């Protein structure tokens, strides 16, 4: 199933913007290990990591708020407007973090400033990614599998870009240099790339599905809560598998391997780069090999596969097969990253589609993704086995996904 030139442009621009915004958002998780103590001074290294990830979580908490704000704009004034505003905010926040003075330089204002920029990032991403998903859904109705496969390959390439930058930085600078100033460079690069993407995104056209909407509710959020509460809850629960896997297997994994499994930093960057290649290749392949299946059918198969692969991946890490374990987890995340956005866009009608997708997706990520580093780290700190902690967390997430899938099937039957 080939895309025509206009469809290729739509998918390409959506993927590029998503890649840059995702890169800006996740490099905090990758590089926080270097700057945590500069903003949160503490004699306990593990405690500093937990404190820095509280800011990480607050960025996720801001996502539902951003989703509410920008989905209202998107359902009222168009998807394109949201895609332009959010890329500007993300670029400015990333640049701000890269230039932010430390606690030693400005005291209490350092963590406050870091928090403010992180909240802006959360607000922006809360509107950006759902808008991208809805834009693809409404622009490529007959070629959604391929469209989501290519788009999500681009979006998750932002994670790969972060890993490659981390790998490059590990080669160019030693740990002391990365801790002193090197960690700032990826944020500054991300800020510059976002402003370039803004120029490109201005050439996008509004979707025909949005332009054809006649019955726009005055308050999309209220309409969602009164008419589609079951679909929203189901969307939140099914998003959990994507949210948890992207955090535990990719964003939090470098810190987990280095600080808790005690794998060398350079080795970690090599493993993560290879694993991310496998991740985005998986997403791309899913877009082509799943064309005969509905999103519900794909998620059902993925859920049962995850029950085997997730614990097996961590057991492999525990037994010294670190690369194999991480790659297996990242492949599983790739399949989830493909199917969940695809599924969410089919749960809601066009007049509140962006609101429904944004709220389900962002709340799901806040509850099951944003809390993951703190929950796992706290479990380990309180005495839970370092391998068992993430397995327990992921098991709870898979149960939540299963419940959400049952709700979707019941809603569809009704």
Summarize it.
The protein is 84% helix and 0% strand.
Can you describe this structure?
The protein is built from 18 helices and no strands. The mean pLDDT is 83. The protein is 84% helix and 0% strand. Helix 11 (229-251) runs antiparallel to helix 18 (388-413). The relative contact order is 0.15. It is mainly α. The radius of gyration is 20 Å and the shape is globular.
Provide tags for this entry.
414 residues; single chain; mainly alpha
What's the arrangement of secondary structure elements?
Blueprint: H1 5-39, H2 45-77, H3 79-99, H4 103-106, H5 109-139, H6 144-172, H7 175-182, H8 184-201, H9 208-211, H10 220-227, H11 229-251, H12 253-260, H13 265-289, H14 295-318, H15 322-344, H16 353-370, H17 372-381, H18 388-413
| Shape descriptor | globular
Annotation field: number of helices:
18
For the biggest sheet, the summary is: none
Radius of gyration: 20 Å
What level of helicity do the residues show? Answer: over 70%
Element pattern in H and E: HHHHHHHHHHHHHHHHHH
Poorly predicted runs: none
- How far the N terminus sits from the C terminus, by CA atoms, comes to 32 Å
